[in-house]
Specification:
It contains seven helices and nine strands; from the N terminus they run E-H-H-E-E-E-H-E-H-E-H-E-H-E-E-H. Helix content is 28%, strand content 19%.
């Protein structure tokens, strides 16, 4: 199964528990990569399930009609800083104010990075050029602790790490992103897994946090 890193703070633990504890029990291998790469792995049969967001260009692929998906929840993104960052106590910051600070962001293939860039471009602003690129929010949040860096990550990830990070009250205008389970319609293994998962209630709140 391919999984986006932020799903570790939402439904991935519930999905894994459902698959490994039933009868018969699955043995799972969880892979993390860019959205494009995971999609190609799914299409080629290298993985059976994809947990995350389909890249927007997926709809134009000839193989798209062979995929099925089940939307699990609407994910939200947030701008995040360390606790007691100078921006933490501000109210409704404009995007321009965020450009005055250094950023740590995932690479250009990340759906989070693409969404953040779109938010700035829609306002006629050049997106922030990060001083650090990191492979996932795990690294980004750890780098905030001893710096004034900003990052962008799933709102659920920020809440789960509230001991070291805080959501910056910025008017960023990021639309919710559907987080789905995606599989090949002709994959018998994926169909069996989905039959198992459809018997389980995957509980996620409006903030993207498991309930």
């Amino acid at each position: 199964m391919g999984a986006f890193p932020h799903t570790t703070t939402t439904v991935l633990p519930q999905i894994v528990q459902a698959l490994v504890s039933g009868s018969p029990a699955w043995r799972l291998q969880i892979l993390s990569d860019s959205a494009d790469r995971l999609l190609q792995m799914l299409i080629c049969g290298e993985i059976d399930l994809l947990l995350g967001q389909l890249p927007r260009q997926a709809a134009s692929l000839p193989s798209f009609s062979g995929l099925a998906q089940q939307v699990l929840y609407q994910g939200r993104l947030a701008v995040v800083a360390r606790v007691k960052h100078p921006l933490a106590d501000r109210h409704q910051l404009p995007l321009e104010a965020l450009l005055e600070w250094p950023w740590v962001l995932p690479n250009m293939q990340s759906t989070t990075r693409v969404a953040l860039m779109d938010a700035f471009l829609r306002r006629g602003l050049a997106p922030p050029a990060p001083v650090v690129e990191s492979p996932s929010f795990f690294y980004s949040l750890s780098l905030l602790q001893n710096s004034d860096l900003l990052t962008c990550c799933a709102h659920s990830a920020a809440l789960m790490n509230s001991h070291q990070a805080t959501v910056v009250p910025a008017k960023i205008g990021l639309d919710p992103m559907p987080v789905s389970l995606v599989w090949r319609k002709n994959s018998a293994e994926a169909q069996r897994a989905m039959e198992r998962l459809n018997t389980v209630r995957l509980a996620v709140s409006a903030t993207g946090v498991p309930t």
